[in-house]
Specification:
Length: 461
């Protein structure tokens, strides 16, 4: 199994190399050269298995010889041992033919833990073999940062530096990043929005002297391993509802497009997914793009679902790569146009995207109303991101079961949830004293050189 860049100009890599590399050296994203298809009998055989065994069977065909089977099983077991629900990802029915997949039972209360915990295990295992040290730099609009910190805190051979947009994440999200005491954790509050943070991160990858000098690694969904680990819960939930004998659809709260792209990979692997519905908040570039073909930024507006306050969705590039017939030059050209604000998706590519994806947008008012209505109808307290998706999913219900991804625990957004439905969700016991813990954070400008200097100083190579 080899991995190739969406821009066609970087060397093909093995799974282990792609995982440690992050962004391809031509600025593109790594994708598998071919996606392995699971025969229907193998999909059917996933029914009733544990989350861990499902993860092993779904991810194994992508790994090549990076880990032995026994080693990989051990890493999976360690990754999910800290989840607080025996099912790891329980399905809850909220209406006729409508189910919510709760992805917030990991240590940092968001779906990011599903991938970050296993990447943490895999990277540590790889580094133990190579004896290397690395600097992980991540950009976050709220959830990736704490999940990365949780996965890598306290490790001797890894520094983890997280850039988050100052004043644009919830207080719980910020405290999750700024209260860990380990000296290898560096929380940086950057001027600007998430798109600025991600742009500076990509600048760092594209500056080869810096990249090689600090042994830069990435754990955003830039990293193929992040996407792969998220493919698992599509299989796990669809099989629970009767796949492969019965098709399902998914609605996904969408920001950086990594989560829904994992669903796209599950579909390519043979999981019968009828539609993948992109749910956006008022930062609706993807909904506009799919409806009109015009993929154009119009500024990031802060919302009550801050993790989705994104206009430049990194992984959309992976979907475009397939939509443009895997033509790296065409992808490089549209990404170049994106630097000046946007591009028109070609008619053929648009048609191809619409075969798999549908989309919808949810306003701030609709988000709050959905939190209140879902609580009243079902007793389920949704976080604002999950509420965005539940609202959009409701507009796309049909004969096949709809699974809506609930991506974060409502307690990460207590103010928005309380304002919407009157209930202030409590943090779980392991985070009960979060507001009493001292914070450690550095304010930084949106300036590449300043950021690089600070990172060099912090990691003291
Ligand atoms: N919504 C994300 C943004 C980063 O996404 P990623 O999947 O590329 O890590 C967040 O909460 O940080």
């Amino acid at each position: 199994m080899r991995y190739i860049s969406t821009r066609g100009q970087a060397p093909a890599l093995s799974f282990g190399e792609a995982m440690m590399t992050g962004l391809a050296r031509d600025g593109g994203l790594y994708v598998p050269e071919t996606v392995p298809v699971l025969p229907a009998a193998e999909i059917a055989a996933l029914a009733g298995l544990s989350y861990e065994e499902t993860a092993f069977r779904v991810m194994r065909p992508f790994l090549g010889d990076t880990f032995t089977d026994a080693e990989f099983r051990r890493l999976i077991a360690a990754a999910y041992a800290g989840f607080d629900h025996a099912a790891r990802a329980p399905l809850v029915q909220i209406g006729p033919n409508h189910f919510v997949l709760e992805l917030f039972h990991g240590p940092t209360l968001a779906f990011k833990d599903f991938a970050m915990q296993i990447i943490g295990q895999m990277m540590q295992a790889a580094l133990a073999k190579s004896g290397q040290r690395i600097t992980i730099v991540g950009a976050t609009s709220g959830d990736t940062g704490s999940a990365a910190i949780e996965a890598f805190r306290g490790l001797k051979n890894i520094d983890v530096v997280i850039l988050f947009p100052h004043g644009r994440v919830s207080e719980v999200q910020r405290r999750q990043m700024t209260t860990p005491t380990e000296s290898n954790v560096h929380a940086l509050a950057m001027e600007g929005d998430f798109d600025d943070c991600q742009a500076r991160l990509k600048d760092m990858f594209n500056d080869f002297a810096f990249r090689d000098g600090v042994h830069l690694a990435g754990v955003n969904s830039i990293n193929w391993a992040r996407v792969l680990a998220q493919v698992v819960y599509y299989f796990y939930s669809a099989v629970a509802l009767g796949a492969p004998g019965r098709a399902v659809s998914f609605t996904v709260p969408t920001g950086n497009f990594g989560d829904i792209f994992a669903g796209y990979i599950a579909r390519k692997m043979g999981l019968p997914i009828e539609k993948l519905v992109i749910a956006t908040n008022q930062n609706d570039i993807l909904d506009r793009a799919l409806r009109t073909g015009d993929h154009r930024t119009n500024g990031v507006k802060p919302s009550i679902s801050p993790s989705m306050d994104i206009q430049v969705s990194s992984n959309f590039e992976r979907a475009l790569f397939d939509a443009y017939g895997r033509d790296g030059a065409a992808v490089a050209a549209v990404m170049d146009e994106m630097k000046s604000g946007g591009f028109r998706i070609s008619q053929g590519a648009l048609q191809s995207l619409r075969e798999t994806f549908a989309s919808g947008r949810c306003s701030e008012e609709e988000t709050s109303a959905t939190i209140a209505a879902t609580l009243a109808a079902t007793g389920e307290v949704l976080c604002p991101h999950s509420a965005v998706a539940v609202k959009v999913a409701a507009d796309h219900l049909g004969p096949v079961p709809m699974i809506t991804l609930a991506t974060a625990h409502p307690a990460k957004f207590p103010d928005a949830v309380q304002a919407a439905c009157g209930i202030r969700p409590a943090l779980p016991p392991h985070m009960a004293d979060l507001y009493d813990r001292p914070e450690r954070v550095t304010r930084v400008p949106n300036d590449l050189c300043a950021l690089q200097a600070l990172i060099r100083e912090r990691i003291a190579l």
